[in-house]
Amino acid sequence: MLVVLADLLTIGVAIAISPLTIVAVILMATSGKGRTNGTAFILGCYLFAVVFVGVLVLLGRSSGTDEPDSGSHLLVDVVEIILGLGLLALAVLQWRNRASTDPPKWMAHIDGLTIGKAFLIGVLISGPLSPKDLPLLVAAGGRISQASLPVEEIVAVVLIFGVIGVAAAAVPWLISVVSPGKVEQRLTGMRVWLVSNHSVIMTVLFVILGVKLVASGVMDLAG
Q1: Sign (positive/negative) of CA torsion 170, 119, 5, 194?
Q2: CA distances from 192 to 27, 30, 69, 151 (A)
Q3: How many CA atoms lie less than 13 Å away from 114 in the CB half-sphere?
Q4: Distance separating alpha carbons of residues 69 and 45, to the nearest angstrom
Q5: Distance between CA 37 and CA 153 in Å, rounded?
Q6: pLDDT tens-digit profile of 34-80?
Q7: Residue 5 to residue 155: CA distance in whole angstroms
Q8: Which residues cross the membrane (predicted)?
Q9: pLDDT tens-digit readout, 176-215
Q10: What's the longest Cα–Cα distance across the chain?
């Protein structure tokens, strides 16, 4: 199990390093809603990742992806290569748009979010509306489904992977819970920096992850 988690660590950390997700939690925290909306938002991110990856693993294992010589196993490797190439293409697009530092329009309405809407945005931003996270979750699901582990360990891997994916966003949430009086002072500088450098951060992540996925898929096919 530890070997599988180590293999997934890069993907999990890359999902965690999502500037806009972290900024959203910071905005909730600095508006005084970190304990409520921030909690709902992070739960939305976590639950989507766990359920989505879990379903992919279930589908993959039912089709025999945990058997090294199966066609399904090879298909996962091919999909991983395609996803890696897609991330490299996104890196080029992100770099071309690096001059834009404006946050998404929905962030301007974060102060007025209800708990339900905060949860829904967490679900959407953690995959369906994320050009980075969705392919990474697909790759993670494929990787886990290929592992020859008992069911209980597979479940543990999926749950731990989900925790890794929300770890960075949980930091400003934790500050809002532990030290609500100092949230503005501690998080404002981080928010400004993340928004200003969003494109560069995403470009670097896209390149690193694209190369990793392509290399992993090619090595599996060759081995």
Answers
A1: negative
A2: 11, 13, 49, 43
A3: 2
A4: 34
A5: 32
A6: 678 888 999 999 999 999 999 999 998 888 776 766 667 788 888 88
A7: 12
A8: 6-28, 40-60, 72-94, 106-127, 154-178, 199-219
A9: 777 766 676 767 777 778 877 778 888 888 898 899 889 9
A10: 57
